[in-house]
């Protein structure tokens, strides 16, 4: 049975950006419980926190969420009130086994009229709207693919299989990569069409494999990925009072 759904139609003119939200992961590193995107922080699921912030970015006209199997109805009930009155359209698809597949499925459900696509992890539920607008603006200004990055603050070592240090990496050329990642729609579609093996850990990696140019903008500390239990404690500090 195909559970995919267009919940609301977006209003023309609100924004030129559609955001794909992969939210179909299990959250194994967070420990047992509901799928991670549906776990609550301060009374709301992480997915609600994430979509609420996306809708606060003026550039966003449509959101497509890739949800765990069987969760279309419950997510629809959660997100419809969040987006009511914002003019942001909502589509829901059932995600795939890997993040890359979830993104591809969401991409296929984006209506026409959105030349810029952002991909944003539900697990980065507290990414600020300013970051969303910053990434979209960089694509609008001419970049094919844009990622938000932060400098690496730790010293980074290479180790052998026994854990013995084999070298120290020059961290000045390294960056930690966040989402939302932004793309010209045609570029993201081409990257996903060519590369379907599920091996890329981010969407910019698919563009890199195609030989495309990926540029960077400053990231945001609050866009941390909630992966392990400690991250949830940090994220609790970011909830609006
Ligand atoms: N098959 C998958 C796997 C992941 N994701 C989404 O991709 C984002 C980044 O993945 P991650 O934080 O690693 O989430 P999980 O895969 O759920 O985490 P874990 O590896 O701990 O199970 C999350 O919003 C997650 O819901 C997805 O949509 N579909
Ligand atoms: C896309 C991402 O959030 C960028 O940092 C990250 O690569 C996701 O990785 P994960 O291993 O699926 O958590």
Automatic annotation (TrEMBL):
Pfam families: IspD. Pathway: Isoprenoid biosynthesis; isopentenyl diphosphate biosynthesis via DXP pathway; isopentenyl diphosphate from 1-deoxy-D-xylulose 5-phosphate: step 2/6. It comes from the Bacteria. The record marks 171, 225 as: Positions MEP for the nucleophilic attack. One of its GO terms (molecular function) is 2-C-methyl-D-erythritol 4-phosphate cytidylyltransferase activity. Its EC number is 2.7.7.60. GO terms for biological process: isopentenyl diphosphate biosynthetic process, methylerythritol 4-phosphate pathway. Transmembrane segments: none annotated. Coiled coil: none annotated. The record marks 29, 36 as: Transition state stabilizer. It catalyses: 2-C-methyl-D-erythritol 4-phosphate + CTP + H(+) = 4-CDP-2-C-methyl-D-erythritol + diphosphate. Keywords: Isoprene biosynthesis, Nucleotidyltransferase, Transferase. HAMAP family: IspD. Belongs to the IspD/TarI cytidylyltransferase family. IspD subfamily. Catalyzes the formation of 4-diphosphocytidyl-2-C-methyl-D-erythritol from CTP and 2-C-methyl-D-erythritol 4-phosphate (MEP). This is 2-C-methyl-D-erythritol 4-phosphate cytidylyltransferase. The lineage of its organism: Bacteria, Bacillati, Actinomycetota, Actinomycetes, Micromonosporales.
